[in-house]
Amino acid sequence: MSFIEERLLDRVAYGTQGGPTWSTRRVPLRSGVVRRKALRSLPLYRFLVLYGNLQPEGHAQVLAAFNAARGGLHSFRLKDWSDFIATDEVLTTGTGAPQSVQLIKTYTFGTESVARAIRKPVVATVALTANNVPIAHTIDSVGVVTFTATDGHTVRWSGEFDVPVMFEQDELLFAANNRGPNGLFLTADVGLVEDIAI
């Protein structure tokens, strides 16, 4: 298996669903109390992408992606329209020496926080600052940035990112159920799951 550095067609239809999933073991006790235990330390993202009224050229793009990826074998990029931007996310504190740090996005509610590794940034959009002053950096294919920042300065990043995903099933069924002036509109619902091995 390998990673294809391309984004799946992002002209999705209304009704497309997706987002984080967690796994929690729940054990109800006779008292009515429910004991809970987290089975994962990070969320797993899942999507059901709807391609309603997909034009023939879009149909060809999705079909090509599915076959080139050999169904669920290879993974690729997906734009999650509900969560694809990071703004002034704190990365670390500068040391005055070169540093390499994984991009993250932190989700906070009350006193609880979860830091999500951003493994497929849109490289051209990524900007780093140290105490709000832009700094030079390089970035690799899995979201690790390398930079040098003044000792004690807070390093932040902003930019867009994709989710590394794979097809959840090894079949892609299209239904030609609408006709337009230029021929058939093809529709397909595509299940995707995050590839956490990237």
Give your account of this protein's structure:
By secondary structure, the chain is mostly beta strands. The protein is built from one helix and 18 strands. The chain has one domain (3-194). The strands form four sheets. Strands 1, 2, 5, 6, 7, 11, 12, 13, 16, 17 and 18 form an eleven-stranded mixed beta sheet that branches. It has a three-stranded antiparallel beta sheet with strand order 8-15-14, with no helix packed on it. Strands 3-4 form a two-stranded antiparallel sheet. The termini are close together.
User: In percent terms, what proportion of residues is strand?
Assistant: over 45%
Distance between the termini: 11 Å
Count of alpha/pi helices: 1
Largest sheet features: 11 strands, mixed
Give helix % range: under 10%
Number of beta strands: 18
Uncertain regions spanning at least 5 consecutive residues: none
Structural class based on helices, strands and sheet pairing: mainly beta
Tally of structural domains: 1
Query: What is the N-to-C order of secondary-structure elements (H for helix, E for strand)?
Result: EEEEEHEEEEEEEEEEEEE
The overall pLDDT average reads 92
Shape label: globular
Return Rg in Å.
20 Å
Short description:
The chain is mostly beta strands and 198 residues long. It has 1 helix and 18 strands.
